[in-house]
Specification:
Layout (H helix, E strand, L loop, with lengths): L3 H18 E3 L19 H9 L5 E3 L12 E4 L4 E4 L6 E5 L4 E5 L2 E3 L2 E5 L2 E4 L3 E3 L8 E3 L6 E4 L3 E2 L15 E2 L4 E3 L2 E5 L2 E7 L2 E4 L3 E4 L10 E6 L4 E6 L2 E7 L15 E4 L2 E10 L7 E13 L2 E6 L14 E4 H10 L6 E5 L5
Parallel strand pairs: 6-25, 20-28, 26-27
Antiparallel strand pairs: 1-16, 2-11, 3-6, 3-10, 4-5, 7-8, 8-9, 11-22, 12-15, 12-19, 13-14, 16-17, 17-18, 20-21, 21-22, 23-28, 24-25, 25-26
Amino acid sequence: MFNIRTLIFIVILAAAAVFSRATPSSAQGHPGCAGITYNTPQTPECDAIMAAQPYPDVTPIPYDLGVIAGENFVYFDTDEVSLYDAPNGEEVEVYPAGRSGYFHVLQMTDGWAEIRPSRWASLESAHFATPSTFTGVIINQMEMPFAWAIYDHCTSLTPGGRRNCQQSGSFQRYDLMNIYATVTVDGWDWHLVGPGQWTVQTNLSIVHPTPPTVFSWRWVGVSTYEQNLVAYEGERPVMATLVSTGDMDEERWRTDAGTWEIELFWEVGPMEGAAGSDDFYALDQVPYHMYFNWREALHGVYWHDNFGYYWSHGCVNLSVSDAKWLWDNWILLGTHVYVYDEKPG
């Protein structure tokens, strides 16, 4: 039989359960949207902010392939690559299985490519690299976090709600959006990214206004959690972009967390590693090497468009345009590189 104390206790437990299931995260949003909660997913103040600031105040970095502009690179989809002394000539060398990568094309003629001096390969099984057109952004002003969509996805009308493409809307991969408010539902952060548009954290790579640490002058922070890079001047974020760091499930390929300094530059040149294993790779004319931890480097990639996901053998992969911007504008010998994996509080 219930008495008044039992009833009060049940009410308190129910309230605690709701609070643990859906709590606001004031650190991730605009101060004017601080009134947003699970039970109050809309306020007039936040509606006004979304109307006034519908898009992050940023400027895209220009697309620029720099030192590899106009060059062609090929990958051969075979276990072995035969090399000849001329097109339709005599076979003089065979690259064995496992020796894979992209080759710089010196010249082409009639379905053949010269990939080493006087060494030609048939293009019958070749695939040409298509450098990503993705570029990061220059941050003009930042009053709240912003994010890139890393997946095509539909949003929800409420935090934790079902996807609703028709009424709430959708985003495409690499779309940019502001984060106006955040509510935690069942341990997952749900972000308000537009009027009636909520999306879960796993769809996004988020850039936060507050840096993870602070160094004097110019430095870069690399978040292996968010898979993004931010160039800072002291505490001020200046440039941000998506990256691909090392595979966190493979200890030998992880991008090492810590504070490092740029110790070596190389504008363009080959990269190879994991000799003697199935993971061996060889890549010609990699642009804008900026080494910070012996084998690890910031550098451009022309061979994939997987920014926002783990993908490298430990380096920090950037689009060629973004690597060129860092090379031209930001990175010097001794520049601090801070690599971290923490989710912001």
